[in-house]
Structures are given as C-alpha cells and as structure tokens.
Fold this protein.
Amino acid sequence: MSARSSAVTRERFMQRHVIVSQERKKEGRKTRSKETIMKLNEKSVAHYATCNSPPDKTGFLFKKGERNTAYHRRWFILKGNMLFYFEERESREPIGVIVLEGCTVELCESESEEFAFAVKFDCVKARVYKMAAENQAAMESWVKALSRASFDYMRLVVKELERQLEEVQEEARSSQAKNKPKKHQPQVQGATFSLQNAAITGPSQEGVSSRENGVSWSKPTSVPNGVSEGCVWEGDFCGRGDGVKPPPVPPRRKTNGGSPESPVSPGTGCFSKLHEWYGKEVAELRIEWMQSK
Amino acid sequence: MRFNEKELVFLSRQPPERAAELGMRGPKKGDVVKRRVVKLIVNFLFYFRTDEDEPIGALLLEQCRVEREDDQVFSIVFLDEAERKYLFECDSQEQCVEWIDAIVKASYEFMRKNLIYYRTEIHRLTGTDPLEQYGISDETRFQVFLVLQSASIHHCHLLCFL
C-alpha cells in the first residue's frame, strides 16, 4: 500500500471512530457498536510477520477481494496461527492478517479459479476467505498447513509429547532402579507414515516447497566426529506399509466443543483417538473430492 | 493493516485461560490506569471496559517481554517498540506472578520451543521420532532451526530434522 493510500485509510478510520464514539455517547450505549474497530497492537503484529523467526509457510496465493470479487495475487506468510498477506513479495508491511483460530479449511468449487480452498470461521456472519493456489500440490500443502495452524492444535501436540516424555523418563528411572542395562532400541510406536504422506502432498514435499518460497530449512548433514549419536536424524523413513495412519488434519469444527456426531470431542485428552478421528474424516473428504472432479 | 476483527471478537468470548479485573495503563505518555477486564485466550490478551461485553482491544502476545515491575505490577513490552510499556496492576503478589507465568506460556513461539525440546529428548531417549506415528514429522512448524553455536566442529551439536 502506498504511503498516500495508507494515510487516507488512517484518516478514514479516525473519522469513523470519532463519529461512532459520538453516536455512542449520545445514545448512552453500553455495548460497543458493531462498526467500531477493536484496537490491536498492529505494529507489533506486523513486526511478528517480518521478524527473523522462520515462517511456517510462504508463497503466492490468489485471494478473493472483500468487496471486489476478483482474485488478487498476494504474497502470504504463515507464522504460528497468523496468516499475513502482502501486496508484493518485497513489501515491507502486510496489507492484512487472518487470525487462524476457530476456523476450518475446506476445498471448494469455484467457477473462475482452479485449486480453490476456503478458510471458514465458526462465528455468526463470519467472513469466508476464499483463496486459490497455483497448482494441486500447492493447494494441498496450504490446506494442510492452514488446518494445523491453530494455537489449540499446537497445544495438543505439545501436551501429547510432554506426556510421552514423562512416560519415557519414568521408564528410564524404573529400569535404572532395577539395575538393568537399558538398550536404546528404536521403538516403532506405530506404523510409519511416509507412503501415505507422499500420497497427500504429491511430488513436492514440504521441504522442497518451503525452499522454493524462500524459506530455508536445514537438512541433516554429516555428523562430525565426537558428536553423540542420536542427535542427527537419518532423513529417510521407509514406510512399513501395514496399518498406516493418515496424517491428522483438524476437521470441520462446527462448535467450540466439537460436532455432535463425533465420537470424541476435539477437547479430548486422548491424542491417538483424536488423530484416528481426524484421519478418517480427511480420508472421506479426499474420496468426496476425487469423486466430484 | 486489515484483520478479521469479527472473528477476533468471537474469539474473545471463548473460555479464557485466565481472566481478571486489573488496572491497566496504556503505553502512551499521558495514559492513566483504568480498570479493565483482562482475558487471556490463546496468544491474545483481550481487554474490556468493566461493563461491556465486547473488547476494546487485543494484544497479540508474540515477540514480547513480560516483566515484574513491582510487587503487584507487571508490564508487557513488544520487542519492536521496547520503550512502550503496557502496565497491569494486580490485587496481590500471587496474582501478579500467576499472570506473568500465564502470559509467558501463552505465546505460540514458546509452545513451539517446548515441542522441539520434547521431540528431541524423546528421540534421544528412544531413537524414535514421536511425531512419526501421527504422520506430522515433516510439518514445517515442528522443525528445528539449526543454530551453530561455534565454528569448532568438536563443540557443535547438530539437531536437524528434514
């Protein structure tokens, strides 16, 4: 946005704010007018977009305008639960941000755009953000990334790992107490995923698409002598094949407490049940989508 | 900068992690302490007039620092504008400590760091990536960012995940 147009926007905002405040005072209203703009620490939020912490995903997407129904090509940066969009890749400040809480991401039909998807929110009269990617792989990649962007989802994963670590540490403690030498045998806790994962993301894996869009992620390099083993990851996971669990994607959440037809609400503490549930719905969605094409 | 205000207001009505009436002072010179209902929900701090149901404003709690200013007072500063302090006055020391703790833990980036730590530890102890079974181990948001602490190869630990 040019300096002049952002100044104009600011002016209009100030005028609107003044008018609304005066009206409110006249009416003696307690509830805030729906036209009032809620304050946000915008400068710092924008800073979060461009600061040196690595983004979760970046790339070009077409975004449907709010009043103007044309799709505009924008540069998107996903960081945490915030989806920023810029006019250009080189723009220093975002035009806007979409807070990704209480939303679901769905594939959608569009007359004008291929590879379209939508970000829908739970609330009444909520905005639907319609977007389109440049190809199938990018669309699937963005849909996955956006579905897993919520704070709640991250919190779930962290809690689960915290629990697992405690279990592992407890086992280590009790086996030490029994004075048994404990061998670090790689325990496969369930079938591995990579075959299934490849099917969902297509030929361009997460890592590759991230690099294309300007995010660099470190790849495993050779370990220098003297570093303890277990620090470096072998990059190639071979799928075992049987009983592969589909990657979990938070499904269409109708309400905060979870939809009535789900066997467990999203609030459940049982992580593996949740993932099974998510996985089933994703599988169903995929079948639906494939059949509708 | 545009943002989805309606959806944020809806978010402010969700069950909060923590909520209380506190004295709040804005960062501008001349701002005075006002009683506000403050609600912590995900990584946002919403603040309301005590008699209103819609928030006046919200603070995204990323890239910020929370500090104890006094016995019962804490502050939030954002790293891009460190001179501007939001002050919060609590009713007790205990409440102050609890709020500071809650706000520090409320950032997405904080959770991410924890996740990376747990993931690394579990792998170190068991030889398995705990995210593998859920098919999310190649998710960008769960990756470790390589930071070489020193040039010496004998002292560097590489923690990388593809």
